[in-house]
Automatic annotation (TrEMBL):
It comes from Candidatus Lachnoclostridium stercoripullorum. InterPro entries: Calcineurin-like_PHP (IPR004843), Metallo-depent_PP-like (IPR029052), Pesterase_CT488 (IPR014578). Residues 3-211 form the Calcineurin-like phosphoesterase domain. Transmembrane segments: none annotated. GO terms for molecular function: hydrolase activity. SUPFAM superfamilies: Metallo-dependent phosphatases. This is Metallophosphoesterase.
């Protein structure tokens, strides 16, 4: 039994959204996903997909993408990404009823993995715009948008606290924290997400959303204050699921 994670599949079996303009790594990326996930993940394993599953805007436009995910081996747990328009934040329970036994949608709830609780939410990160001088140094940013971002961070923190609360109430003391957005923005060294990770003593924080060489270093990777931070964006991993726990 092992726990794997992979993010940002960006599937589009029903809508026209070619990913090749975003780089060669995206060429036939769904075939790579199928090949590597089938090679790496065993039926008894758990695979957490950290959001941006589908380009469809409504559930009806995502059915084939979700069926593709269903056919992948192992137990599949899905996190909400910023592009997952099919997933109304208030309708997570309804999705869980409809896909019971096939897919699990992680938000305002948690999933058990051995003696670990898998907790998580979409998260949020301020992404600018930033203003640069002619050498490329940041000299300022859109402060109005930053204030708006703080509100969105707070809303996501409410959801995340609920996920932790339920897991702790069920008796769990070991946690893996999943986010779609990176835990910190490029101006921050810590954030409410890193703080709650430390408060609960999580083993790892797993996130994605960052695409392309220039963005892979936007947030924390590796060990920080005793916690392992893992970036699992599909293009970062060339669509090979990353091992979170053996
Ligand atoms: Fe993405
Ligand atoms: Fe994203």
């Amino acid at each position: 039994m092992a726990l794997y994670a992979l993010g940002d599949l960006h599937l589009s079996f029903q809508v026209h959204k070619p990913m090749t303009p975003f780089g060669r790594v995206w060429k036939n990326h769904e075939r790579k996903i199928e090949k590597y996930v089938n090679r790496i993940v065993k039926p008894e394993d758990t695979l957490v997909l950290t959001g941006d599953h589908s380009w469809g805007r409504k559930l009806a436009e995502c059915r084939e993408d979700l069926e593709f995910i269903e056919r992948l081996p192992g137990r599949k747990i899905l996190l909400r990404g910023n592009h997952d328009m099919f997933w109304d934040a208030k309708k997570t329970e309804r999705l869980n009823q409809e896909y019971a036994g096939r897919l699990f949608f992680l938000q305002n709830n948690f999933a058990a993995y051995g003696d670990y609780a898998l907790v998580g939410t979409k998260g949020y990160t301020f992404e600018g715009p930033f203003y640069l001088d002619r050498w490329g140094n940041i000299t300022g940013w859109d402060e109005e948008r930053e204030i708006q971002a703080e509100k969105l961070v707070e809303r996501e923190m409410t959801r995340l606290r609920e996920s932790f609360r339920q897991a702790r109430e069920a008796g769990f003391r070991k946690y893996i924290l999943f986010l779609h957005y990176p835990p910190t923005n490029i101006l921050e060294e810590t954030s409410p997400f890193t703080e709650i990770a430390e408060e609960y003593g999580v083993t790892a924080v797993v996130y994605s959303h960052c695409h392309g060489e220039r963005r892979f270093g936007d947030s924390i990777r590796g060990d920080f204050h005793g916690i392992r931070y893992m970036l699992v964006s599909g293009d970062f991993l060339d669509f090979r699921p990353a091992l979170v726990l053996p």
